[in-house]
Amino acid sequence: MRSLFEFGKAIMRGQRQERAAADLKAEAANMKLPSDAGYLLFLKYCLFVLFGYYNARLFIVIRPGFEGLFTAFFALAGEATALYCINTFPRTVGAHKWSVGIFGALLTAFSVTHATISFFNLDQHAAASHFITLYCEKIAFPLLFSLLLAAAVVIPLTHWRKKALAARAKAITEIEISKAEVLTETAALQAAALTEQARLDYLTQALAIEAEYVDKVEQYAQLKMRESKALEGISDPKIREEIARLLGRSSIQPAEKAQIKELPASGWNIRGNSSH
């Protein structure tokens, strides 16, 4: 009985845990987190539209004509840039976050200041009209253009994609440098191989010339030996001298042959005594 009672308690405990888990899940599903859209988003855009209107109005009043309209257009561009920076700030990181934050704050301050001047018509007050006109003509215009130019240059440069592109460019540069080094080394090796081949061809040709030269020298020596033998074989000294001159050689004596000199017919006897 006790075991059955404990088994029933375990089943009931499991059911309670399941119901608690279901209740937590339902509570989490029904929980509504605050949204970043809705009324506050609508209010933000309405305020920037209002700021844009008063900024454009101020510059058109201070500088009537085409220049005023042209400057008002860039004032509206400043409003749009400030709104872009504010919307981008929560969705970025690093240097890009700092750049959009700084330019968003500067352009928003610029917009609010000039919208306030325009709303209260401070340019028409006797005490402030001269100062405000001087400020709008000498400071506000260059300041607006400088902020827009700096924002247009700095914000894209600090974007995280530029870092990725820089890393990619660095990798591609290293690859191209490696290719260039390989091509240069290959060209150097090919040049060295061509040089060695040319040296080998030169040595082969030199050996062939030397061998041919030796053959010609041997042929020449054999020819001269035959020439000498031919001259030595001529017994007539006049003919031999004449032919030697024609060949550009000095006089050559014929080869002496072993001959028994004949004794004179008279004057000496066998014993070497005089016949007298």
Describe the structure.
This protein is mainly alpha-helical. It has 2 domains: 39-158; 171-249. 78% of the residues lie in helices and 0% in strands. The chain has helices at residues 2-30, 39-62, 66-88, 94-119, 129-157, 160-232, 237-246.
Descriptors:
disordered C terminus; single chain; 276 residues; 0% strand; 7 helices; 2 domains; mainly alpha
Number of domains: 2
The oligomeric state is single chain
Strand-and-helix sequence, N→C?
A: HHHHHHH
- List the uncertain runs: 256-276
Report how far the terminal alpha carbons are from each other: 189 Å
The share of residues in helices is over 70%
Average pLDDT over all residues: 79
How would you sum up the major sheet?
none
Estimated radius of gyration: 60 Å
Percentage of β-strand residues: under 5%
Shape: elongated
Number of helices: 7
Secondary structure: number of strands:
0
Structural class: mainly alpha
In short:
This protein is mostly helical and 276 residues long. It has seven helices and no strands.
Question: Strands, helices and their partners?
Answer:
Blueprint: H1 2-30, H2 39-62, H3 66-88, H4 94-119, H5 129-157, H6 160-232, H7 237-246
Helix pairs in contact: 2-3, 2-4, 3-4, 3-5, 4-5
